[in-house]
Amino acid sequence: MSITIFTPGRTELSGNHTDHQQGRILASAVDLGLTAVVEKGSGTRVAIESDGFKPFYAETDLLDIIPGDYGTSRALMRGMLAYFRENGFEIGPFSAKMTSTLPSGSGLSSSAAFSVMVGRILNELYNGGKADPVFIAKAAQYAENEYFGKPCGLMDQLACSLGHAVYVDFRTMEIDPIIADFGSMGLTLCLANTGGTHAGLDDAYASIRIEMDGIAARFGKKVLRDVDPDDFFAKGWSTDERPVRRAKHFFEENERVPRMRDALRAGNGEEYMRLMNASGRSSENQLNNIVAEGAGDTKLAEGLELSAKLLEGKGAWRVHGGGFAGCVQALMPPDLFPFYKQEMEKAFGPGTCRELKLA
Length: 359
Hints:
Radius of gyration: 20 Å
CATH topology of the largest domain: Ribosomal Protein S5, domain 2
Low-confidence stretches: none
Order of helices and strands: EEEEHEHHHEEEHHHHHEEHE
Structural class: alpha+beta
Mean pLDDT: 93
Number of strands: 11
CATH class of the largest domain: Alpha Beta
Helix content: 40-55%
């Protein structure tokens, strides 16, 4: 007998590169995602078929980390199986046929959705639903960090696993559901995919965490959340140093997140857009995650520049997610969206700009 399981993608609303420093984030699951039709198997083989890709496999008794598999779905699958087993949960063979409504390169976190999907399958087939969403999210982060080779935080996995809008403080693990209803605020949220590729950007992403960790280490701390912001700003740093700019972004963004949460709760679209633009400027000018060093891909920068021209004084725009390539997240009155969509698609191609519905 088969079962059908859905796992949503996610969008980051605020907290750009704060999660890996035990900071605060706002994120939400979206109405797009992965659907799997699953059956229990026999023996030791896990098999997944996905539209447009060759089937891939893992064996439940061969779960070592394989560096040659870094960056592959097979590695994520093996990592999820290993984490469940190592933490006392049952694992077993299954076959799944998977379909996706997540557009390629959309920045809606397909890798996190995939990992969470594997966790949900194991939970339903072999564990009677005993694994809670936070455990599944942590398993997915482990799979990405250790098996996939990506030093990500927990934001993407947690939003996909919880399945709704959420405020999270990773220091205290406060997880607070949020109603993020932009429609009732008279606003339209959208993503514009500028078409750049994330391939080859692992070092660029890793450098953000490494440089933030390096600033924390100057204070004898492990992560920036351990550092008193007053102590950091009292140093009188030179912002010519990129690690200093990135740390400054962390402290300012970390304080901005609860203010954006409160603006959502109050239905205050004007304040939310003001803070969203501040977040975007900080990512561009301090976090510096728009154009990777030595890369010729400037599509994301072009998308942000065009968004500024189209929305200045009328809406908000920011880099979405990890950066260096991918999407612009924008927020505007509904009557402006058709024009924004038209102009962004003139620049980046048909179908590249779409309204985003939160779960």
